[in-house]
Prior knowledge:
The structure is a homodimer.
Chain A: E1 25-35, E2 38-42, E3 55-59, E4 62-69, E5 78-81, H1 101-107, E6 112-115, H2 128-134, H3 151-157, H4 178-184, H5 199-210, E7 214-219, H6 225-232, E8 237-243, H7 253-260, E9 264-268, H8 282-298, E10 303-307, H9 326-342
Parallel strand pairs in A: 5-6, 5-7, 7-8, 8-9, 9-10
Antiparallel strand pairs in A: 1-4, 2-3, 4-6
Helix pairs in contact in A: 5-6
Amino acid sequence: MKGFLPSASGLVALVAPLAALAAPLTIKEQGSFFVGGESKTVAAPALGPIPAQSGEITVNQMYVQYQIPMRGAEHLPVVMVHGCCLSSKTWETTPDGRMGWSEYFVRKQRPVYLADQVSRARSGFDPTAFSDVRSGKSTPDKMPAILSATHQIAWTVFRFGPKFGEAFPDEQFPIAAIDELYKQMIPDLNSTLPRDNNPTWKQMAALAVKLDGAILMGHSESGFFPEQAALIDPKGIRGIVSIEMPCETTLASTQIETLAQIPTLVVFGDHLGDVTGGPVSWRQSFETCNTFVEQLKKADGDAQMMHLPALGIKGNSHMLMQDRNSDEVADLVIAWIDAHVERKAGH
Amino acid sequence: MKGFLPSASGLVALVAPLAALAAPLTIKEQGSFFVGGESKTVAAPALGPIPAQSGEITVNQMYVQYQIPMRGAEHLPVVMVHGCCLSSKTWETTPDGRMGWSEYFVRKQRPVYLADQVSRARSGFDPTAFSDVRSGKSTPDKMPAILSATHQIAWTVFRFGPKFGEAFPDEQFPIAAIDELYKQMIPDLNSTLPRDNNPTWKQMAALAVKLDGAILMGHSESGFFPEQAALIDPKGIRGIVSIEMPCETTLASTQIETLAQIPTLVVFGDHLGDVTGGPVSWRQSFETCNTFVEQLKKADGDAQMMHLPALGIKGNSHMLMQDRNSDEVADLVIAWIDAHVERKAGH
C-alpha cells in the first residue's frame, strides 16, 4: 500500500448495497431521546432570517439513539460513545460498507444505545461564545477553538501507517475506503464545554441509571468518559469498556476504590509506537492505562488490559471498530462482558 | 392550556419506555453512509490539543441513515430531510414518546432514508470561517451567523399557540412534552453555505439517482429542497412531498416544466394566520405554495395542496410529523404516494 494516495472525490459512495449480506433483523423496540439539557437565557441568539430576540435555548442535552433486540432483556444494554471529531456514525456501517458494531451487538442480542457527545452532531452545541464574537460582545481571542482534524492528522493519529499516504503492511483499517472515514470527521466543539466537567459525563451516568444498569463504552477522546461518569455516579454502571485513550493515573484512592467496584476492560490495537512525529503518543497512552489497570487490580478490581497484538491479533488501527476484523474484536469484547459482567452478576 | 409555562428541566426524560407499545419490527437491511463531499485545503484547521498544521478536510458531505423493511422492494424509498435548527431527530420518536414518521413509514413497508442537512448534525460543517476569525485572518463581521431559535421563537413560528406559553385550544402538538422538542433544536449553520446553491440540494438529487428512484420529502427550511434538487437533476426523483415552507413563485417556465413532470404534494397544517407578531407569515407561505401548485397544474403537472383543515383535520402545528395525530397525517401522505406516484408508475 506504500504510496497510496487518498482522494476525497465527490462521487456518490456506493457502499450501502454491500451491507445487504446479513439476514433480516427483528427488533423489539427502537427510537431516540435526549438525556439532560438545561435552559440558558441568551440575549440575541437568533440571527439570520429570524430577528434577534432574547430568550431561552436548551444546552448540554445528549442525543441517544437505540435498538433493543428480541432477547434484549437477557443482556445488559451497551452505551457506545464516539471520539474526537466523530459522531455516532463511528459505530454504524463501516467505511467499506460492512456492518458496524452497533448492529453487530444488537444481533448478539445486546440493547445498544448510541450517544452523540454533548456539543456534537444531533446533540447540538451552545453557540453563544461564537455569536458573542460576531456581535462584538466578545473578542476573537475568546472564541473557542474548533477542533477539526485533517486527513493528514487522521492518518497518523489513527495509525493507518507510519506516515500520511503510506499504510502498514498488515494494516487492518480498510484503507481503500478511507474517503468514507474522512466524511465522518466533523468539527469538534468540546472546547465550548468545561474541560474538567464535561456534561457528557453526567449524562452518561444518568443514562445508565435510566436504563437501570448498563455497560458504558468510550473511545479515544471519550475513552475515559465511562470512568468519569462513574466518578460522578456509579449507581447504574455495571461495566466499563475503554478503547484507546490516555488514562488518568493520579486519581485519589477513594476514586480508585469507586472504580474498582466496576469490571473494566481497556482495549488497545497494534503499532502503538510505529508512528513517529505525530501529535499523539499511543505508546505513552498505553502505559498510562497499564498503570491505571494495575491500580484497579490492587484495589481488588476486576480490570483487564486487552492489547490485541498480545492475543496474536495484528495490524489493528485506532479505529478498530471499523477495521476489517471488527467482528472478531467485537466478539472478544462481548466474551469479556459475558464472563466479567453478566455471569458475575448472575445475569 | 392558557398560561402553560414550559420549563426545560434537567431531569432525565423518561420517554423511551412509552415507545414500546408496537409489535416487533423486522428489517431487511439498515445502515448509514454519506452522499458527496469534497476535499478542501485548509491552513491551520486543527486547533486545540492537536497542533495547527495545514492539510485537507472533507466538506459538503451529507449523512444518511436508512432502514429497508422486508417488503421494501415493493415501494419507492422515501428520503426525509429536516428543517431549520433541527436534525433527522425530527422524524424519530416524538417528544411525547410515540413512534415517529421514520419508523411508521418503515412499518408501512417503505424504505426510509433520513438525511442530516449538509452543515448540520452528523453531516458536520465547514469550520473555516470561524477558525479564520479566531486566528485573525478574518474579522468578526465576516463570521457566518449561527441561527439558533429560542423556545419563544419556536413556540410562535411552529404555531403552538397565539403567543409564547399559550396553546391553541385544539393544538395537536404534544405541549406537555415541549421540553423534548427544545432539546432537538440545535444551531443551524446554513449561513456557511451558498444561499442560492445549497449543497444539500445536489446531494438529495444524487441520493435519488443512487437509489434508482426515490420520493423526496422536505420540511420548513428544507420544504422546497426537493424542488431545488429536481432543478439540478430530476432523473431519480419520482415524487415530491413539501411540508410547510414558502414556495418559489418566480421560476422560469422551463423550470416549471421540469417540476411538472414530478408528482408533487404540498402539506400545510392549521392556524396559519392565528399567530401575530411572529417573524414568519405562514399565511403568506401558504399563498405562495397555492400559486406554485397552480403553476404546476397549468403545465399539466400532478400537483396537490393538502391543507389539513380543509379535510376537517384541525389544530396541526408546523411540526405536524410530531403532532398527536401524526399517524393520521402520515397515512394521508402514504395514500397520496400510492395513488399519485406508485400506481401511476405501475409500481
